[in-house]
């Protein structure tokens, strides 16, 4: 199997699993996986596709500028430049972007603070933090409609071969050394967001009941 076909299969498996979680509402979200480092090329999801359906037009190969390497009627995902920032700045091999209710709510709750931190959760080990009192922080950037401007802002927070950034009321982008690590980071982030929102809701309900 060629490297291109192997990477296609890996990305298709991730898309399939995330689709089963219903993390692609309204054709939102985009996925990418590196094929070659020099010169840079990567597979990225085609724009406007229903990601619950698998076809031979799910992904297209683009270069280091995010332009299609072969003549095609397909259009790369609108956020392809975010993936370009990741692959041009790090050794990451896979990057994932999804819109969920939980990550959008978290980004709005803490957007004015520019980020949110989590600690005291076992799942933080997914980020390589093994200390007992480890704290993990995720930055939140504003959602610029102009994608090049959004990519430039996003790029300021791409500093390692794995990581995550929330875009306010837009979604989360994560990356890792390969598809497995990127998916692990995404799952850990979504777990933390969901847990945090449930705790806030329970605390509010308890406070209201004490006042009654």
UniProtKB/TrEMBL annotation:
Cofactor(s) in the UniProt record: Zn(2+)
Cofactor annotation comment: Binds 1 zinc ion per subunit.
Annotated residues for binding of Zn(2+): 97, 99
EC code: 4.2.1.109
Entries under SMART domains matching the protein: Aldolase_II (SM01007)
Residue ranges constituting the Class II aldolase/adducin N-terminal domain according to the UniProt record: 9-197
Pfam families tied to this protein: Aldolase_II (PF00596)
Record keywords: Amino-acid biosynthesis, Lyase, Metal-binding, Methionine biosynthesis, Zinc
Biological processes per GO annotation: L-methionine salvage from methylthioadenosine
Entry-linked SUPFAM superfamilies: AraD/HMP-PK domain-like (SSF53639)
Reactions it catalyzes: 5-(methylsulfanyl)-D-ribulose 1-phosphate = 5-methylsulfanyl-2,3-dioxopentyl phosphate + H2O
Primary role: Catalyzes the dehydration of methylthioribulose-1-phosphate (MTRu-1-P) into 2,3-diketo-5-methylthiopentyl-1-phosphate (DK-MTP-1-P).
Family: Belongs to the aldolase class II family. MtnB subfamily.
Subunit structure as annotated in this protein's UniProt entry: Homotetramer.
Record's protein name: Methylthioribulose-1-phosphate dehydratase
Organism expressing this protein natively: Metabacillus idriensis
């Amino acid at each position: 199997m060629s490297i291109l076909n192997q990477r296609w299969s890996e990305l298709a498996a991730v898309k399939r699993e995330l689709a089963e979680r219903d993390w692609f509402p309204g054709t939102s979200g985009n996925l990418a996986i590196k094929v070659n480092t020099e010169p840079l090329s990567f597979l990225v999801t085609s724009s406007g596709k229903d990601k619950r359906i698998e076809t031979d037009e799910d992904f297209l190969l683009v270069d280091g500028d995010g332009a299609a390497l072969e003549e095609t009627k397909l259009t790369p995902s609108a956020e392809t430049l975010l993936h370009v920032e990741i692959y041009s700045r790090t050794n990451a091999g896979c990057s994932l972007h999804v819109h969920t209710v939980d990550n959008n709510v978290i980004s709005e709750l803490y957007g004015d603070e520019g980020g949110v931190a989590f600690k005291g959760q076992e799942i933080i080990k997914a980020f390589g933090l093994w200390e007992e009192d480890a704290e993990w922080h995720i930055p939140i950037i504003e959602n610029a409609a102009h994608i090049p401007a959004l990519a430039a802002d996003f790029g300021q927070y791409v500093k390692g071969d794995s990581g995550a950034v929330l875009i306010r009321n837009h979604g989360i982008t994560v990356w890792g050394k390969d598809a497995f690590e990127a998916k692990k980071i995404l799952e850990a982030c979504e777990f933390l967001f969901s847990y945090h929102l449930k705790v806030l809701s329970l605390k509010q309900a308890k406070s209201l009941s004490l006042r009654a």
